[in-house]
Amino acid sequence: MAFSVRGKTAIVTGAGSGINLCFVKLLLENGCNCVLADLGLRPEAQALVDKYTTSSPRAVFQQTDVTDWLQLERMFDVAEKEFGEIDIVCPGAGIYEPPFSSFWYPPGSPESRDSPAGSRYMQLDINLVHPIRTTQLAVSRFANAKTPKSILHISSIAGQNAAMMTPIYVATKHAINGFVRSLVRLDEIGIRVTAVAPGFIKTPLWTENPDKMRVIVENKDVWVTPEEVAEVMLALVEQDAVNGAMLSDDKESGEKIPIAGGTILEVSKSVRAVAAFNDPGPGERAGNHLGDPRAAEEGFLKLVRSPSWGKL
């Protein structure tokens, strides 16, 4: 299953910023064509696309609302038209429980964009439904391919933990872990489905949200960088147990991690495989813990005790 990304083609959703942008940058630097699918591009992402517009490899931006299944299909059509065969798909777009789609700000509240008549949470559509549908679309194209293919998901340490501040986000990441493990046997037909489970990443999802930044203890908390996660993502595509398993940076074990279908790698300031059963959890490893959420949790408890909470 191991293969070099050089000369291959990847689709990455949510590629306009953060982890996914860093992954695209790494893929391009290693000779892989990329389709960046997102609602828009931050300046640094636009600069990357401009740099690789006419070169080889190439980067193409496809404006995509990942909650729209027709736009997801169009994303694949564009990739095939531009580059022919697709080899790597990363349904990486996600949101970290902002007020506009949150358990604590129910549909119909001033902060929420989820309509009480819409019968859906935007966060579930983006974080869970879109990765599932994108995987279906990828498998439909990969099932009879003659070369190895890779589908790489973005989970989180939230897929192992509970967090009162972000219960819907936590639910989506637990679901992604189960989804990835459920597709392990696709490895037998040359389709590897894996995931990374990052700790706390310093991306705009955090730095541009004052509510989230309030829990940060500056000069004490340790961030994981998007570049560190991207390196592990590349390893999940290019390595396996036969052709050089990735060496864990976890000083507690130092063991080699066999990479195959269903692998979920936690990425903090160390790297470890997340077991399906009896896993010890992310614990206090550097990059897996930020600040003290208790003040924010008290705020949510006060919020739900207000007479108007959840009522239209």
UniProtKB/TrEMBL annotation:
This is 3-hydroxybutyrate dehydrogenase. It comes from Polytolypa hystricis (strain UAMH7299). Keywords: Oxidoreductase. It comes from the Eukaryota. Belongs to the short-chain dehydrogenases/reductases (SDR) family. GO terms for molecular function: oxidoreductase activity, acting on the CH-OH group of donors, NAD or NADP as acceptor. The keyword Cytoplasm does not apply. The keyword Cell inner membrane does not apply. Gene3D superfamilies: NAD(P)-binding Rossmann-like Domain. One of its GO terms (cellular component) is cytoplasm. Pfam families: adh_short.
